[in-house]
Amino acid sequence: MATLEIRDLHVSVADGSDGTKEILRGVDLTVQAGETHAIMGPNGSGKSTLAYAIAGHPKYEVTSGAVTLGGEDVLAMSVDERARAGLFLAMQYPVEVPGVSVSNFLRSAVTAVRGEAPKLREFSKEMKKAMDDLSIDPAFAQRSLNEGFSGGEKKRHEILQLEMLKPKIAVLDETDSGLDVDALKVVSEGVNRFSSTEGTGVLLITHYTRILRYVKPDFVHVFAAGRVVAEGGPELADELENEGYEKYVKAGVS
Amino acid sequence: MGLETKPLSTLHQKASYEVGDFDVPTGREEEWRFTPLRRLRGLHNGTAEPHGKAVLEVDAAPEVTVETVGRDDPRLGRAYVPADRVSAQAWSSFTQATVVTVPKEAVASAPTVLRVRGEDASAASYGHTTVILEPFAEATVVLAHRGSATYADNVEFVVGDGARLSVISLQDWAGDSVHVSHQHARLGRDARFVSHNVSLGGDLVRISPSVSYDAPGGDAELYGVYFADGGQHLEHRLLVDHSRPNCRSRVDYRGALQDQDAHAVWIGDVIIRVEAEGTDTYELNRNLVLTDGTRVDSVPNLEILTGEVAGAGHASASGRLDDEHLFYLQARGITFDQARRMVVRGFLGQLVERIEVAEVREKVAEAIEAELDRGAAR
């Protein structure tokens, strides 16, 4: 069983004037297989930094702390090694990659993660089914990755990748932002299909409680000023819905 | 800046069949400043010995006539007058020319392939090719260049009223070759011209594709793909001269560069003259810089002399592989090297996939893979 463990994680980014700025200031978090965790927090609290640091984006420098997946040192791995080890990051702003088709990209990714190329016929069938589940027009398979996609189409394709790559732990970075209600439902169903798979865990980062009506978290963590400032069950999300982040923002500034 | 104060481009201004009408370039001239003249082996200053060897083989579609003719054939040089000294040298020096004719309303059932194979680069060889599409004819012509040569030539495309011509010029030379070429297309009413230039091999390649319009309704699409390795100079100089109303042009050239002293030059000149109302034009050049030590010069130049255009724009961008692209692919388990290949392949592939001749398209795709292998092996 895969467990993602984050211990006392400190992360900095370049501040644009030769210095660095600490964004994460000691994050502790454990996501076990079978669990869905929601991380909620105001803008600028460091939620996305946590997501990118776990995935290994070069812009974010881990200055201290540890991240392990099933006991393996994630921070020692390259970006692609992390993905092959079973981590997945659904991006908040997926980039457009001209000339790389969705199907070519998916096949390359599936081959990399599974360690062998799937048979073309089986892959096509699998992709078609996964696209169908997310109400994605099959014509998208031949289009350049994310190029000219609407915000909702990009997010559906992130979940498409999630479902095809079958990671152990999925980090979803504001996958709900910019979605209309119909798209939110479709995307949430995809997340639920994934999280109901044996041995998978979800770390859902969101600014809003709206998605939590469709994706039920087991644990809710409130993020402020680069660390977790409150933890609880689903009831914490309801409290945030009613009262907002204000008291946590104050508590986080220490 | 008012239109009346803007001078017409000084580039491509002169035209003559006489070598002596052009001064020997010094490298300070606008049209020569990016070209390493010393590597032209005397093509530009009259010192090149004319006993090099380049052999032509032709594989023509059954509907198409291909003739080898002498210098005095009246069909030669009617569409194009040499625009620089090397071009005039080629015009003055060729001994035999090739005339390709597609008769009126004929539709060629296969591509017509002209293979130029260089067999001696120690001295210069010269060529001249005239391709004539009579009204409403349709054809695809492939110009394939390989081997070792110091080669200068002029290619004329006369595309008659309502005719359609697709041309692929493949510069797949050996590493010791020099190639300087002008490719001029002259379009009749409602004529359509599509050109692909693919420049991969050679020490120095300088291609100047140009388009002029005889009547309204002409449509030209000029595409180019190049991959410059260490020490290679690949230069493409485009000129689209809109002198008739309601014509269209599109230019999209893309290149990749890797290793020390790989040099790519792209000049994109578009002129929209006063009488060319309703012109629709867009030109684009992009370069992907894969390593340190390379150099790109990209100069778009759009001169608009009428206020009545349907569309006119240009863009040029040169840069390294985008870290965000690589991160995204790597975050899906794809290795750095493979991610890099996928991005470059995609970037160039959008033009390669437009090449209509499957055999050439596959060959170009393979050649790009070989270039990427070379980059990965370093």
Walk me through this protein's architecture.
The complex is a heterodimer of chains A (254) and B (378). Helix content of chain A is 35%, strand content 30%. Chain A is α/β, with parallel strands linked by helices. Chain A has a single domain (3-95, 168-252), classed as P-loop containing nucleotide triphosphate hydrolases (Rossmann fold), CATH 3.40.50.300. In chain A, strands 6-9-10-3-11-12 form a 6-stranded mixed beta sheet, sandwiched between helices. A 4-stranded antiparallel beta sheet of chain A has the order 2-1-4-5, covered by helices on one side. The radius of gyration of chain A is 18 Å and the shape is globular. The N and C termini of chain A lie far apart (37 Å). In chain A, 45% of the residues are buried. The model of chain A has no long low-confidence stretch (mean pLDDT 94). In chain B, helix 2 crosses helix 3 (336-352). Chain B has helices at residues 85-93, 323-330, 336-352, 358-377; strands spanning 53-59, 65-69, 97-102, 112-133, 138-159, 164-171, 178-187, 192-199, 204-213, 219-228, 233-242, 248-257, 263-272, 280-289, 295-304, 311-320. Chain B starts with 52 loop residues before the first strand and ends with a helix. Chain B has one domain (3-321). Helices cover 14% and strands 44% of the residues of chain B. Chain B is globular. Chain B is mainly beta and 378 residues long. The A-B interface holds A 55-58, 78-80, 82-84, 88-89, 91, 94-95, 97-100, 104-105, 108-109, 112-113, 144, 161, 165 and B 322-325, 327-336, 338-339, 342-343, 345-350.
